[in-house]
Amino acid sequence: MSETTNIIPVQIEEQLKQAYLDYSMSVIVSRALPDIRDGLKPSQRRIIYAMHELNLTPGSHFRKCAKIAGDTSGNYHPHGEQVVYPTLVRLAQPWIMRYPLIEGQGNFGSIDGDPPAAMRYTEARLQKITMEMLTELEKDTVEFRSNYDETRQEPTVFPARFPNLLVNGSSGIAVGMATNMPPHNIGEVCDAIIALIDNPDLQPLDLLEYIKGPDFPTGGFILGTEGIREYFETGRGKIIMRGETEIETLPNDIEQIIIRSIPYQLSTSQLIERMVELVKDKKIEGISDIRDESGRDGMRIVIQVKRNHDAQVVRNLLYKYTQLQSTFGVINLCLIDGVPQVVNMKEMLQNFIDFRHEVVLRRTQFDLRNAKERLHILEGLKIALDNLDEVIALIRASQTPNDASVGLQEKFGLSEIQAKAILDMRLQRLTGLERDKIETEYQELLIIIARLTELVEHKELRMNLIKEETAEIRDKFADKRLTTIIPAPAGSFNMEDLIADEMVVVTITHDGYVKRLPVDTYKVQARGGKGLSASNLKEEDFIQYLFVASTHSYILLFTDHGMCYWLKVFEIPEASRTARGKAIVNLVKLAEGDRIKAFVTLKDFHPEQNIVMCTRNGLVKKTPLTAFSHPRSIGIKAIKLREGDELIDARICEAGDDILLATHDGKCNRFSESEIRSMRRFSQGVKGIRLRNGDYVISMTIATAQDQLENGKPNSSTILAISEKGYGKRSPISSYSVTRRGSMGVITLKTNERNGYLAALMLVRDDDDLMIITQGGMIIRQRVSEISVVGRNTLGVRLINLAPNDVVRDISLVHSEPDEESLDKEVETLKAKPASNLEEFADGEDEEFAEEDEEEIEEMDESEEDLENEEDNE
């Protein structure tokens, strides 16, 4: 080894760390992040500057992009023209740039995801708005630096007259950091700049008065303002974007979804491919066809919906599973004096104002220097014209130009610059007209110098000038917003919006299995049929409850221990007719030992409605429905029960309704709901029917005012009673006289060896369908109109043929579709009811309801005393 060899030992860890740090800073500063002042990355700035040098101004001829890319690569950006061209293309794409900086001619790609043509086929020139970034470049407004081979000078930043970073946004991935800034409307941004100059104390959120939020070139919607407020205040936030859609109905009643716009940075081909995947995977089953009919009139993607599917639900599924609704994560990361920083909206605008002030000051100083230099020359010319004969004689007597210059300086006290200007003056300037022009120019320069001097000395004047120039930009380039901001409650959707609103049958077994299936699964059969198997139950289990409800309905589940749980029908898994279903304990957190004994289905929580509950021992209780509108994951207490008693049923009632309680021995008591005072949830209730020894309540029915009378006359509603052995009958409501609460009741169905005991009692109408379910899991559906209407104290007729040892367990109704008249009445009724605020219903409000429960306990002792006094009197 040579003695001159110099070996420096280096730790490889330190070398790698330093090398990676150098690489990281190079990527951050020279490649990936934009400058806060002009909003451009180095590659973008070099492309525009190269086009500026080629004089590709608006109105000039287009030049081949290959020439532009070649000049940029050869003069300023040493990474190859193939790398430069994609950046040039992006600056010209109107679906990427809110205000494109380059005007392209030829195939520059499309929002469908099509690639641009090769750069030898496309042409480009600068846009008018781009010239506002370059107009003061020659006035020493910004610093220049040497290019990569030190043969040319390039600007470090453009003296932009508008904040391009806010107007067009930016995105880039550096090493260990990334930027993602949305575009904004230039008119709104200019208004915010003017407002911030007028009032520097404005806070970031105050700027929302001027800048409403992002304004994407693809239009669409932004859901809510929470994400906007976040990035205005912190520089980071999440914006939910949604494409513009509408639902059209064709003459054949087939619905189709029309997509008019898509979220920013999404191509139509990506969206369509994703929709096709979802259809193939059967995640969305309501789509029959997808067509792209976009053209000169704009975007039009047609999604044809199958005839038996809801277009609104399909659209919500598209929002959930495709990029038709997506999130734009805002990261306002940019370079400030070469250092990457995350800035909020005020900091971004203030940095631009400070930069703009610096540009205006340097421009003013540049103009002032030039004006003074010109004034200095004009002063020399005036001296020469005032002493014209002597000047001419001196020049003629001089041997060389240098001798003439020295002579002029010495004789008239001129500077070298003034002497040179006199020597360079053409003879035509000696005419009287030219002498007047010099005098006029001299006077005008004095005025300009005075104004420029005042600008240099007073910052307030410079700030006013910035406001005027910003207003000029606004007036020249401002346009209407393309993106609409929708308030969050109106634009958001939840899981319920992904489920079609349809009627389903819900079954709950004795062992706690629940399922839902379409109501048309069970075909109507004639009276006396054998029915269908409703589920493949395990041994000793049987279907205990069956009811029909909308998938959007709420279910209040009441247990035998008096607890209430809250559930939505669509949360119940759909299963086949013979499937067992899902254990209800997996849907609601039942307390140990609790069993579902009653349920209430409803669409809304109306303040004028109540929940009436009855117990096995004949107690009844009325509680406002709104007391159950705030669910808790562990349930809420619905009624206080005495030892040995249990909850049997719970129903909704309103003022004017009658309550019918039926017992196992076939007795029924009818009384008005007004005889039960309204109680809070923790109270116990009062006596509804007096029971004989060994008897107990099995059923409760509510007869509404409409059920009793329609247009002042008895309507078609009747009371249906069915025995355990499948015999039943209908009786007029009028045959059940209204008595007092606590009476023993009257006979509703004769119980004997043939009939067995009473199984259920229900109010029905002629146009209803009856569903009977047995302990063995058999179900039959038949028309109510086929069941005879007979007297109250009769045996009834056979409604279902039972297998040996099987008994009727429960009945339910399937209501027919309402006609237009009855539907109008229902709509008017719903309009008259005050709307409840369902947005407040949420789990996790334990503290609030713990306080409510403590208040209700105070009323508990009072209700118990009422019950004991009543029993003593009887």
From TrEMBL:
EC number assigned by the record: 5.6.2.2
Positions occupied by motif GyrA-box: 525-531
Q: Name one Pfam family in it.
A: DNA_topoisoIV
A GO CC annotation recorded here is: DNA topoisomerase type II (double strand cut, ATP-hydrolyzing) complex
Which intervals carry biased composition (Acidic residues)?
A: 840-874
Location of the active site: 121 (o-(5'-phospho-dna)-tyrosine intermediate)
Q: Which Gene3D superfamilies match?
A: 3.30.1360.40, DNA gyrase/topoisomerase IV, subunit A, C-terminal, Topoisomerase II, domain 5, Topoisomerase, domain 3
Which InterPro entries does its entry note?
GyrA, GyrA/parC_rep, Gyrase/topoIV_suA_C, Topo_IIA-like_dom_sf, Topo_IIA_A/C_ab, Topo_IIA_A_a_sf, Topo_IIA_dom_A, Type_II_DNA_Topoisomerases
Location of this chain's protein in the cell: Cytoplasm
GO MF terms here are:
ATP binding; DNA binding; DNA negative supercoiling activity
An individual GO BP term: DNA-templated DNA replication
PROSITE patterns according to UniProt: TOPO_IIA
Q: Which residues form the Topo IIA-type catalytic domain?
A: 33-498
The reaction(s) catalysed by this protein are:
ATP-dependent breakage, passage and rejoining of double-stranded DNA
Q: Report residue spans for region: Disordered.
A: 819-874
Major location category of this protein: cytoplasm
Regions annotated as coiled coil: 435-469
UniProt KW Metal-binding keyword:
no
Q: Which SUPFAM superfamilies match?
A: GyrA/ParC C-terminal domain-like, Type II DNA topoisomerase
The family assignment reads: Belongs to the type II topoisomerase GyrA/ParC subunit family.
Subunit description: Heterotetramer, composed of two GyrA and two GyrB chains. In the heterotetramer, GyrA contains the active site tyrosine that forms a transient covalent intermediate with DNA, while GyrB binds cofactors and catalyzes ATP hydrolysis. Heterotetramer composed of ParC and ParE.
Query: Which NCBIfam families does its entry note?
Result: gyrA, PRK05560.1, PRK05561.1
Q: Which HAMAP family match?
A: GyrA (MF_01897)
Its function, per the record, reads: A type II topoisomerase that negatively supercoils closed circular double-stranded (ds) DNA in an ATP-dependent manner to modulate DNA topology and maintain chromosomes in an underwound state. Negative supercoiling favors strand separation, and DNA replication, transcription, recombination and repair, all of which involve strand separation. Also able to catalyze the interconversion of other topological isomers of dsDNA rings, including catenanes and knotted rings. Type II topoisomerases break and join 2 DNA strands simultaneously in an ATP-dependent manner.
Q: What else is known?
A: Few gyrases are as efficient as E.coli at forming negative supercoils. Not all organisms have 2 type II topoisomerases; in organisms with a single type II topoisomerase this enzyme also has to decatenate newly replicated chromosomes.
This one is known as DNA gyrase subunit A
Annotated gene: gyrA
